[in-house]
Every structure is written in structure tokens, then in C-alpha cells.
Specification:
It is globular, with a radius of gyration of 13 Å. Strands 1-2 form a two-stranded parallel ribbon. The chain has a two-stranded parallel ribbon with strand order 3-4. With 94 residues, it is an alpha/beta fold. Helix 3 links the parallel strand 1 and strand 2.
């Protein structure tokens, strides 16, 4: 299984659109909130499936310890997909 730390679980299409195009600073706050939530639930490792801009990978590289004492993040970087296949909602076509 994997997660998308740069996105929230909202079903609201407008909020999802804003998250998709969000600048790094806005996504960074959401990522940190999700990482802290992982710790609260005892989750110590996550595999992020990527996001449109690669914000989670940037977060991992720039903030390896900030608010993240003990959560190991494997980050894919920018999400991509093949036309007609799964992933169009989060990535860029190959």
C-alpha cells in the first residue's frame, strides 16, 4: 500500500484541485500534519506514491528531521501515469 502525504482525504473536487496545484509551502504544512498523524497512530514508515509537483520528495530531502522523529518516508517524487491508465488524477502523462 501507499499514501499521498501531499493530499488530504477530502472528497470535495474543488479542494482536491487546489491541492493538486498547491505551491510547496502550502503542501509542506499538509505533509507535516500527515507525518505527525502517522506518529500518533504508531506508523513509523510510509511509502508515498508521488504527487504532481514532487513536493513530498522535496520535503523529505529538505526536512529530514523536522516534526519527523521516527517516520521513514519513501517518496516516489513526481507522479506519472500512462494515458488511459490509473493515475491521471495525480500525475503527468509519460
Amino acid at each position: 500500500p501507499h499514501v499521498h502525504l501531499a493530499w488530504s482525504e477530502t472528497p470535495d473536487p474543488e479542494k482536491r484541485r487546489r491541492q493538486f496545484y498547491a505551491a510547496y509551502e502550502k503542501s509542506r504544512k499538509r505533509i507535516l500534519r500527515h507525518v505527525r498523524s502517522c506518529l500518533e497512530w504508531g506508523v513509523v514508515a510510509v511509502r508515498d506514491g508521488g504527487d504532481h509537483h514532487g513536493h513530498v520528495l522535496r520535503y523529505k530531502l529538505e526536512n529530514p528531521l523536522e516534526g519527523n522523529p521516527g517516520v521513514r518516508i519513501r517518496a516516489a517524487g513526481r507522479a506519472i501515469y500512462h494515458e488511459g491508465r490509473y493515475g491521471a488524477i495525480i500525475g503527468s502523462p509519460v
